[in-house]
Amino acid sequence: MQVAIMCLLLCAFLVLSSCSAHVLALKPHLFKHRVSRPADVDIVYKTYYLDQKIDHFGFLENGTFKQRYLVADQHWHNEGGPILFYTGNEGDIAWFCNNTGFMWDVAEELGAMLVFAEHRYYGESMPFGAESYSDAKHLNYLSSEQALADFAVLIRYLKESWPATRRSAVIAIGGSYGGMLAAWFRMKYPHVVAGALAASAPIWQFPGMVDCGVFYKIVTDDFSRAGKRCSSSIRSSWKAIDKMASTDKGLQWLSSEFSLCAPLTKGSDLKSWLQETWVNLAMVDYPYKANFLQPLPAWPIKVVCQNLQFSPDVPEEKLLHGVAEAAKVYYNYTGDASCLNISQSATGNLGMMGWFYQACTEMVMPMCTDGVQDMFEPLGWSFQAFSDECFSMFGVRPRPDWAEVMYGGKAIGAHSNIIFSNGGLDPWSGGGVLQSLSDSLVAIWIPEGAHHLDLRYNNEYDPHSVLQARQQEVALIKQWVKQWGAQDHVEL
Questions:
Q1: What distance in Å separates the CA atoms of residue 1 and residue 18, rounded to the nearest whole number?
Q2: Does residue 125 carry a catalytic annotation?
């Protein structure tokens, strides 16, 4: 299959489905609602709902739905303090609220109101209630353009409802797909948004903009850096699994060695599960213990690679034993799991089907492997095969160039006041903006950063590069807020 499961995020994009998928989703989907915040940080917010039009761009569909949004105003300066506006990703907004520590860490310094807006078709914000995912007709209004319009209408409503916010500068913030939305929000609605922080936002991960193999090459580089023979051991494991899975006895051995909850029936299922595992580890290779996707040790890839230091002539059973132990670092670091279920996604419970639909319409992100520059089995990219799968699944066909038509592709130099932050360990950085395009289209590089590390809470083990990145981000936000306050704005 070529339909992608998007990190993620994340960001908070998905990674790879149990079938042989090509196009990865933004930020790991299906996250469990684990909160990884410092014990001394108090998360207090109020939940609200706003009636939004189902279709902002047509006039035939007059229905509305309730969009959920969360507001924290403990540190807000009542007259003109800025609004930090989180552009919700492909999942429940409460999860992103609890995990976007940067916003909570800087709220007092900036005197900011925090607003977390849920993306339509995710969490509780369902345009057609229980029927929202029933067919392509009901899914027709799931798009980034409609979501951005929701955000613009919400900000207008907030400024009408709370007069003291009318002159407040709004700074869009998001990570992964949410980071893409933050950047596009500033581009499309500069009269609404004063600036944007787009963390780990692969706005160029589209046809013709980057090589389809860059994502998996970065994943491989992460494992290569963590251990001399780590990536080569993983590369060798695929044939070893095929050979072992060719007999019933071998399948039983693999099921036992990997502590699987159900007997393995074919080797391809195990390989797809492992490929997703290695990708997820690359995205969450944080410098401290964290539970963003799973409870993990500090620098988890280094821990994983301790089990994968094999010479090329290692016996297959010994190699696969090491692979099993490596996988258990990700799935059972705490030792609480009695068995591992490869039929469940490794990334929890975000809106997977919604992202599948978006990937099958406007978010076409080619991914491929060659087994040489990366540690995975060769798998090419075929738009036609991808399109056929999308049509089979949803009755729609993707528009491969729509993101470029809608948002400008690489021709974004006319825009302003956007930070593009990316981490050297994050595979999604391959589709990101890595060099500043102007004084106000600023790229921030975090060499030791995995997926949107800068949006996480401050931590005593943070590398110096992410501390510098956050300082630069706050300085630019302050600059944009000051600029906004000096201008005359028509009240929304």
A1: 9
A2: no
Q: Is the pTM of the predicted complex or chain greater than 0.85?
A: yes
Q: Which of 92, 105, 221, 426 is catalytic?
A: 426
Of 176, 233, 387, 429, which one is the catalytic site residue? Answer: 176
- Positive or negative CA dihedral for 70, 71, 74, 75? positive
Residue where the block lists tokens 């849920």 = 118
- The closest alpha carbon to 450, from 472, 424, 476, belongs to 424
Instruction: For residue range 80-134, list pLDDT tens digits in order.
Output: 899 999 999 999 999 999 999 999 999 999 999 999 999 999 999 999 999 999 9
Cα dist from 262 to 270, 325, 343, 344, whole Å:
12, 18, 9, 12
Which residues are paired to 419 by β-bridges? 197, 442
Of 29, 415, 451, 452, the active-site residue reads 451
Residue indicated by tokens 């992100």: 365
**Unique residue bearing structure tokens 């005593």:** 460
Give every CB contact of residue 285 below 8 A, 6+ residues apart in sequence: 222, 299, 300, 301, 425, 450
| pLDDT value of position 308 | 97
State the DSSP code for 247.
Answer: S
Under a CB-based contact definition with an 8 Å cutoff, are residues 350 and 122 in contact? yes
Radius of gyration of the chain (CA): 22
Which of 381, 25, 26, 428 lies closest to 219 in space, CA to CA? 428
CA distance 7 to 14: 4
Concerning whether 272 is annotated as a catalytic residue, the answer is: no
C-beta neighbour count of 190 within 10 angstroms: 14
For 133-150, how does the pLDDT look when each residue is reduced to its tens digit (9 = 90+)?
A: 999 999 999 999 999 999
The gap between the terminal CA atoms of the chain, to the nearest Å, is 46
CB-based contacts of 143: which residues, under 8 Å, 6+ apart?
358, 361, 362
Is 451 an annotated catalytic residue? yes
User: To which H or E segment does residue 161 belong?
Assistant: helix 144-161
> Quick one: angle between helices 383-394 and 352-359, nearest 10?
130
The answer to whether the beta carbons of residues 366 and 381 sit under 8 Å apart is yes
The one-letter code for the residue type at 282 is A
Question: How far apart (Å, rounded) are the C-alpha atoms in residues 11 and 174?
Answer: 9
CB 285 within 8 A of CB 303: no
Q: How many CB atoms lie within 10 A of CB 429?
A: 27
Q: What is the pLDDT of residues 199-241, one digit of tens each?
A: 999 999 999 999 999 999 999 999 999 988 999 999 999 999 9
